[in-house]
Amino acid sequence: MLGIVEEFQGLYGPVQVTERFLQILWKRQAFHGDRFTCSDGRSFRTIHPGQWNKLEGPDFRDAVLEVDGVTVTGDVEIHFYSKDWNAHGHQVDPNYNGVMLHVVLFDGPELPVPALTESGRELPGWAMLPHLIQDLESLAEEEAMREGEAHAFLEEWQSFHDLAFDAQRRCLEDNAKQRWHQKVCRARYLIEELGWEEALHLQTLEVLGYARNRSQMTTLGKGIPFRQLKEGGFDGNQLFDYQRGLWQLSGIRPANHPRTRLQQYSKLVQYHPDWPRDTETWIRSWLNILKDWKIQRVTTSQLRSRFQFKPQLLLLQNEVLGGLMGGNRIHNWVADALLPLGAAHLQIDLWMLWFNWYSGDTPREALQIETAFRSQGDGTLVRCNGWIQGILSYLIRIRSGWVQLDFNALPENWGQGGGGQLGKPGRVV
């Protein structure tokens, strides 16, 4: 059943996913490691995930697993919870007698419900959530944007473009605010779990992975923590070999090749091992600036000029990072890693800095929408991270199944003070 939607409280806030998305995770085998233990105590590894069945019957046909050293072939069914097996009537449907593994996202606090086939056989179960290569939120966001590469986005945005300009602006500001809060929540979790240095190390590697190799870089960052990297003297080739065979290399420009990026990062750690401390100092330098900022009523361009964004950027890029990142990539790092982590670590409000920062690498469709949005203004709006983040948040919500609202019907103060939600998710079959 591809159309079922559930909302969960994720690590960093509510996250909504579909059963189709869970099936994609199984198809991609987006899990740490390659050998797991199912509910009956037997170990298994996936040789082939099977043929994705988008019609009636089990989700994957003819999967090949190695179970306790024995190769077996059969079907795989995927649900949110173990109880969904009975809820969907599979226990009385002979089409599911060939299932050999019942995969669920998680079972929650309740006891797992045994999955029995129509023939009376009890199936082993396995929960994927503890084994995901990234948090569920990040994987869902990646998939939403990946689907959007071939999506007829102009159709889904037509209603947005028909709105009055002020309603569009409130919509994007509110979406950006929600996206900022989610990023800070995620950063807070990482800081509490790993500390400042390790969290910054992990997030920096993730950004260096670009879209295709984020999960591989995340696995690398968890497998070789910053402390070990400083003490062990790993070079870029050794770091690359840690994920050998797993990198997505087709069509990548030489400058963005993960081996190249890892060589640059290893040199940064080797010659400037205290770069996380200096990064924290750079963030602290904004504290006095931000105090003055709160009383200003000026445009993004005026803010950037008055508070010397460009000199601050050059200091960060050259003195702190040693030229590791430039161009748009450093802006992605500032927006996706540095500022959310800094806000969580130092417990300071960096929202306005984050919103008015420069935009980084952005999907073409989001740039088109942002350009069309600004063209309706009075000419004082410039491209910034906040508008782009608001657009990305809106796209992700639409593609994840959130219901669109009629923004023309929203009150004038909608989007101020963190209010507003882009729709109520529901369980729809």
Describe this protein with a few key phrases.
single chain, 429 residues, alpha+beta, two-stranded antiparallel sheet, globular
Can you offer a commentary on this structure?
This protein is an alpha+beta fold and 429 residues long. The protein folds into two domains: 5-31 and 33-131, no CATH class; 138-356, no CATH class. It is 48% helix and 12% strand. The protein has 18 helices and eleven strands. β9 and β10 form a beta hairpin. α5 (165-194) packs across α18, α6 (196-208) packs antiparallel against α15 (327-346) and α11 (275-284) crosses α15.
Q: What's the arrangement of secondary structure elements?
A:
Layout: E1 5-10, E2 13-18, H1 19-28, E3 36-37, E4 43-48, E5 51-52, E6 60-67, E7 70-79, H2 84-87, E8 99-104, E9 115-116, E10 122-123, E11 125-127, H3 136-148, H4 153-161, H5 165-194, H6 196-208, H7 214-223, H8 226-232, H9 236-241, H10 258-271, H11 275-284, H12 287-293, H13 300-306, H14 309-320, H15 327-346, H16 351-356, H17 364-374, H18 385-399
Parallel strand pairs: 7-8, 8-11
Antiparallel strand pairs: 1-2, 3-4, 4-6, 5-6, 6-7, 9-10
Average pLDDT rating:
82
The amount of beta strand, in percent, is 5-15%
Q: Helicity level, as a percent range?
A: 40-55%
Strand tally is 11
